[in-house]
Structure formats: structure tokens, C-alpha cells
């Protein structure tokens, strides 16, 4: 009998972790900034995250995806994590949550 994966619960745990990672230039976490486009979990507990950066030449273009992978992999239930960076669609301030805009004084 295979164990049923509660993807919603796992997704919530992953989002909690993502909310602890901040863009070094903006005092808002990467999730609220809208940098996370998609989080996929398969039955092997492998996680794939599709994310973007605020700009293609972002100073943390190398380290941020690695940090996301490491933090997500630190969850007990996650076997592996792969982060894919995309600039399609490009990030804009419209992708930020209301909370992030409020934090940055954009509302």
C-alpha cells in the first residue's frame, strides 16, 4: 500500500520555507515578491520550483536559486529539489502580493 501524498500540506510547508528567504535588496520575502511562479511535487517527493529574479543580472542570480534548493531540501518530506529560473514572463511589481506592496510603500 502506497502512502498518499498530501500535496497541499507539503505545498504549505514549502511556501513557509520560501517565506523565510529574502531578496537581499528588498526587505520582502521571495514568495510575497512574486518571484515563485510554480511549485510542483511528484509522488517521489521531488520538488520542482519555477521562479524568476527581479532582473536577469540580479546580484544573487547564482546564490538565490541554490539557497531555495537547500532550504526546501531541508524539509523532512522532500527528497530532492530543483529550481528552474525563467524570465518568461519577466518579473514586474504587479506580481507582488498586496502585503509586499504595502511593506514597500507602493500602495
Automatic annotation (TrEMBL):
<dbReference type="InterPro" id="IPR002744">
    <property type="entry name" value="MIP18-like"/>
</dbReference>
<dbReference type="Pfam" id="PF01883">
    <property type="entry name" value="FeS_assembly_P"/>
</dbReference>
<feature type="domain" description="MIP18 family-like">
    <location>
        <begin position="12"/>
        <end position="85"/>
    </location>
</feature>
<dbReference type="InterPro" id="IPR052339">
    <property type="entry name" value="Fe-S_Maturation_MIP18"/>
</dbReference>
<dbReference type="InterPro" id="IPR034904">
    <property type="entry name" value="FSCA_dom_sf"/>
</dbReference>
<dbReference type="InterPro" id="IPR014291">
    <property type="entry name" value="SUF_FeS_clus_asmbl-assoc"/>
</dbReference>
<protein>
    <submittedName>
        <fullName>FeS assembly SUF system protein</fullName>
    </submittedName>
</protein>
